Amino acid sequence: METLAQRFGKVVRDMRVERGLSQVDFGEKCGFYQTYLSRIENGHANPSLNAMEVIANALGVTVFQLFERVRVG
Questions:
Q1: Maximum distance among all alpha carbons in the chain?
Q2: Fewest CB atoms within 10 A around its CB: which of 3, 10, 57, 59?
Q3: How far apart are CA 6 and CA 38, in angstroms?
Q4: Are 37 and 18 in contact (CB under 8 A)?
Q5: How many Å apart are CA 73 and CA 5, to the nearest integer?
Q6: 4-72 architecture in CATH?
């Protein structure tokens, strides 16, 4: 069974790719290292609420919209 961290990471990766952003470009937009984003996208990191908000903003959505995609899966 997929964990919440894995589902969240997959949604972030899918949304990033939909926007045509590389991990490096997205990391610069978020202010995070590419390695940290890679760990999030692979479900190996548990981002804080603040980090989730930064990620959502960088994707052009609210945290609630981001989590709606996570919930729907």
A1: 32
A2: 3
A3: 12
A4: no
A5: 12
A6: Orthogonal Bundle (1.10)
- Residue corresponding to tokens 């981002």: 47
Q: Which of 61, 45, 63, 43 is nearest to 53 (CA)?
A: 63
Is 54 in contact with 32 (CB distance < 8 Å)? yes
Contact 31, 54 (CB under 8 A): yes
pLDDT in tens, 5-63: 999 999 999 999 999 999 999 999 999 999 999 999 999 999 999 999 999 999 999 99
Q: Tell which residue, 4, 3, 8, has the closest CA to residue 51.
A: 8
What does the domain layout of the chain look like in residue ranges?
Answer: 4-72
Show the tokens assigned to 19: 């926007």
